[in-house]
# Entry
Amino acid sequence: MTKNSQPMFERVALIGLGLIGSSLCHVMRREGLAGHIAGNARSQATRETAMRIGLVDSVHEDPKAAVSDADLVILCAPVGVLGALAETISPSLKPGSILTDVGSVKMAVITDVGAHTPDGVHLIPAHPVAGTEQSGPESGFAELFEDRWCILTPPKDADQNAVKRLEAFWQACGSRVELMDAQHHDLVLAVTSHIPHLIAYNIVGTAADLETVTESEVIKYSAGGFRDFTRIAASDPTMWRDVFLNNKEAVLEVLGRFTEDLAALQRAIRWGHGDMLFDMFSRTRHIRQNIVEAGQETAAPDFGRPHGAPEED
Amino acid sequence: MTKNSQPMFERVALIGLGLIGSSLCHVMRREGLAGHIAGNARSQATRETAMRIGLVDSVHEDPKAAVSDADLVILCAPVGVLGALAETISPSLKPGSILTDVGSVKMAVITDVGAHTPDGVHLIPAHPVAGTEQSGPESGFAELFEDRWCILTPPKDADQNAVKRLEAFWQACGSRVELMDAQHHDLVLAVTSHIPHLIAYNIVGTAADLETVTESEVIKYSAGGFRDFTRIAASDPTMWRDVFLNNKEAVLEVLGRFTEDLAALQRAIRWGHGDMLFDMFSRTRHIRQNIVEAGQETAAPDFGRPHGAPEED
# Structure
């Protein structure tokens, strides 16, 4: 890819410099998308790291200073603080600028951030469906968004030009972009992200609490399947607390179905209904195949994990 | 690694040539562990493939012919058929030989296979805790067992020399070996393997059944976490049906705890108990770190999955 001769935005402000914020810095630099990247982070250590490793052009303790004169403001903090952040920066937002976020829930963002968005500033919530289990300013990398979907949930009366500009921005970051109703987004992501995280956290917790099986045994024999769950159960606790508190309705709806289905499986096991188990276990394989074909997963067995040393002969 | 000058066993018979059976063929050949590998598979297609790709030295439609004169017989078929298989091959087993398996449950193997093990044949059940989501004779590879644990559950009166020989065999395959009581094995694996598979199958099924979210949406946004679960939910349905039917007690016990814990999380979400969620989500991260340190998982973020094209600059 080549750098654009003219940056897409003269000044971009990132509020929060964790995995997503720092990955945005890397890809914006690679693609030449921003004339100036201004960063804000609550912790001094993060601000120092951001300057040291060259994530940003300027770093600001005060989020108001970061967003001042910015053409694009991206809130990259946990969803639970976005309302307060928006209230803080509101007076400093530049008329005509785009205000967006990267949160995993969108209805709450529209409500919480929308309440503090001044007239003339274009609020277009966004959610790049991409991540790793790592956090912090040093966990980012430019390829994080490559071929992943970024969902925009513009309000009905959103400025179409602003929507198009944000869409072009995410495409330049490597993403595919989809527009969606915020409420539907929250339901879809409850299925594809929030409930998977919840049950991953839960099984890891259940395993840790057993009196009859030691943690050492859980660790040694985790290659039987358990270790797959520990990846997303290692995700950032603050971010995920906020997701569940802010997408309660959809999460409880999908969770209700999950536990209902699980009870049916439990009953089939108790009563020895092998055919029901076989049918259930047979109809899930094709979904992975489709995910691979859709470019959302590696085709390599076992996620392409290394298995021992390479063969010699 | 170097080939042994003298094979560890003159003739090894493999009953079943799926992922585990074919991986054993590859590693036995690489390490020179068997003078002759005799294979049996129910399906003609598998038998033909096994000969074509050179997995075995001889292939047999009749399992009795495969085990005849074998010094080591390894049952690599789903747990549900092992009793019937043992009954079939029993008259053909060589006195002094070792009879073992690779099943994910062990109490049932001791009962079902033990009932048909002739005097003078050493039954030593085994479970290599290793696998991928792939199946069939072409899915095997020599490194599958490298640094993974293989659990032996010898009966109390087992011949110690035979146990040592099987232990040496699995070590030569690259495994670390642990001896364990069969009942404890079944409980440990219920936690580290069986329940993870069950909830993975379940969430994939729940997602497929939603009327309000399309399968296409589930696939597109699976990188939010869901895709991690689809890997083990793509595992062999026959094998897993048999696991659940044959480890009912331990599975129901651990599943009961899992759903109890999940109900507590559900309640915390409903009532907005953020502190409880945060505490729960904070105490699971270290387990992954310990799994990485124990050599049972890659340290690379996101399982080392590829993220887009390599950076150019």
Q: What stands out?
A: Chain A is about 45% helix and 10% strand. Chain A touches chain B through 122 residues (CB under 8 Å).
